[in-house]
Amino acid sequence: MISPITVGLVAGSIVLVLLAGGHWLLAAIAGLVVWLARVFIATRIARRINALPHRIDPFALREPWRFFVRDALQARNRFSEAVADSTEGPLRDRLGEIGLQLDRGVEQSWEIAQRGQQLTDTRRLIDVDALTRTRAALADGDPRMASIDAQIESHERLATRETGTREQLEALDSRLDEAVVRAAELGTRAGAIGELESAGNDVGEIVRDLEALRQGLDDVGGER
């Protein structure tokens, strides 16, 4: 609304009207019209960008979080190939439904890994070794001691949450790999629709567990 480009366009339109001999009121109206058009176009563009699917980029993260996202993507790609190779019919339709669940699982893994990276980055901002050395040099009753203790405790909470998130995501990733391999194998067998239903339910349960883990991290909002 007040970006340099917007201001420049509005000012330019006013100057052009005045140079053309127009009344100042006409110039003000022209400026208002340009401003409204600029805001309208920018808003439409922003909405279209927000409507686009989020790009999942494992390499935007560091290990171990990168590994979890990359592993989930590879599982989804292997499953997509299995669906493409399957014969048209009820079996392939069910595989397609499982694929949609798997897409949700990959998205959840990406969200969780980003939260995990945030936990790691925040924890590393707290230099526990330096704080411990400083604390050891303080005299009893020094008012700075309480602040140092609070920072060390914050580091411990972040480390605990980071470890728990990593272990849960690792376990869910492993379960997802197993379920995907099983579903893909059943997709090669005619008449395995009943067993495939069970495999699909397993994928759905894992995705729900991933969503629960992600929601738990959202509720905390990343301790700092």
Helical region count?
Answer: 7
Based on secondary structure, the structural category is mainly alpha
The first-to-last residue Cα distance is 33 Å
Tell me about the largest β-sheet.
none
Outline: flat
| Total discrete domains | 2
Q: Helix share of residues?
A: over 70%
- What's the order of the H and E elements? HHHHHHH
Oligomer: single chain
- Beta fraction: under 5%
**Which spans have pLDDT < 50 for at least 5 consecutive residues?**
49-53
Q: How would you sum up this structure, described in words?
A:
The chain has 224 residues and is mostly helical. It has 2 domains: 48 residues; 163 residues, no CATH class. Helix content is 81%, strand content 0%.
Short description:
81% of the residues lie in helices and 0% in strands. The protein is mainly α and 224 residues long.
